[in-house]
Specification:
Blueprint lengths: L3 E7 L6 H10 L6 E8 L5 H4 L6 E7 L4 H17 L6 E5 L7 H9 L1 H6 E11 L3 H7 L1 H9 L2 E5 L6 H14 L4 E4 L21 H4 L16 E8 L5 H15 L3 E9 L5 E8 L2 E9 L8 E8 L3 H9 L6
Parallel strand pairs: 1-4, 1-5, 2-3, 2-4, 5-6, 6-7
Antiparallel strand pairs: 8-12, 9-10, 9-12, 10-11
Length: about 325
């Protein structure tokens, strides 16, 4: 079955998500999308703000950051499956500005029918460059949305100076050093940086993110969200890694927003690609190692209250002896 790519569009209230969505729906790209809008509260408004084009638009009027979101998503996507997903080139899920994107992303790991029919392409976060510092002070959701992103759009460029933009970029990078970052005014960004990114594709993570985990052994202290990264040339023992990562996610999964890695597994000709959303993990064999390629394992965690020493000790316990 052909898997339909899914783009999760997130960002805090007023950042410009709906403006970007309308651009996607009106650009002459010749593609047809199913659009799922997740609003906060019992009365939906965003659906009325989406341009009247020939797209399928569905509303989820719950807005809560719990399994209800996953249930609604599964119900809607299952309905699309019955009607034939081949009608669509992609699915776009626009979350409420108050949402944690994790439950949405977890949907594409947890339900087997959804997993077979769809593929999470990227989590795209739109940021209000003018007001993001205030939001980071009073809204943990804004920080989670940035930390969770594969692609970040710094919007409202016309409202900030170059110096202010540099400060915003620095803060964004301190929260999430691994997302690709782009700037825009009124969400006028090249749609190629938003759609068909393959940023959540386990087999393409290295080609899509060539700077993946650059600057290993990093640890940021200037934000409540931290990133911890490790890199090693020693081979990973698969059984030990599976046991350790399973236990780590089970015990600390609420604090670990995202984790991902590309590993050199002992006696394997292929790299092993891993990523997880909180406690929900996915993994798959990646591309073969080239003969002239250095086999380096790289692993990153992004979350709160992370102990670099404990994670390092645990990861090193999975490695071959030096």
């Amino acid at each position: 079955m052909k898997q339909i790519p899914v783009t999760v569009l997130t960002g805090y209230l007023g950042a410009g998500k709906t403006t970007l969505l309308n651009r996607i729906l009106t650009e002459p790209h010749g593609k047809k999308f199913a659009v799922i809008i997740n609003e906060f509260g019992a009365v939906g408004v965003d659906n009325d703000l989406v341009v009247g084009v020939d797209e399928e638009v569905f509303e989820m009027n719950n807005g809560c950051i719990c399994c209800t979101v996953r249930g609604d998503l599964i119900r809607i996507i299952s309905g699309l499956l019955r009607r034939g997903l081949d009608k669509f080139d992609g699915i776009i899920v626009e979350t409420t500005g108050l949402a944690d994107p994790a439950p949405v992303a977890q949907t594409f790991f947890m339900d087997e029918d959804v997993r077979r029919a769809t593929k999470l392409d990227a989590v795209v976060t739109v940021v209000d460059s003018k007001h993001i510092f205030e939001r980071l002070k009073d809204s943990p959701e804004a920080e989670d949305q940035i930390a969770f992103a594969d692609v970040i759009i710094l919007n409202k460029l016309d409202l900030v100076t170059k110096e202010e933009l540099a400060e915003v970029e620095s803060r964004i990078r301190s929260i999430n050093p691994y997302a690709s970052v782009h700037t825009s005014t009124k969400s006028q960004v090249d749609l190629n940086v938003v759609l068909d990114r393959g940023a959540f594709d386990l087999n393409r993570i290295l080609s899509i993110e060539p700077q993946f985990l650059e600057g290993a052994h990093s640890h940021n202290h200037d934000s409540s969200v931290q990133s911890v990264a490790f890199s090693t040339d020693r081979a990973v023992i698969m059984g030990r890694f599976e046991e350790w990562i399973g236990q780590t996610l089970a015990e600390q999964g609420q604090n670990i927003l995202r984790s991902k890695g590309v590993l050199n597994i002992r006696n394997s000709p292929r790299r092993f690609v891993f990523q997880a959303v909180h406690m929900i993990a996915d993994s798959a064999p990646g591309n073969p190692w080239r003969e002239d390629e250095k086999k380096t394992s790289k692993l990153v965690f992004i979350g709160r209250n992370l102990s670099r020493d404990d994670l390092k000790k645990g990861f090193e316990s999975c490695l071959e002896a030096a």
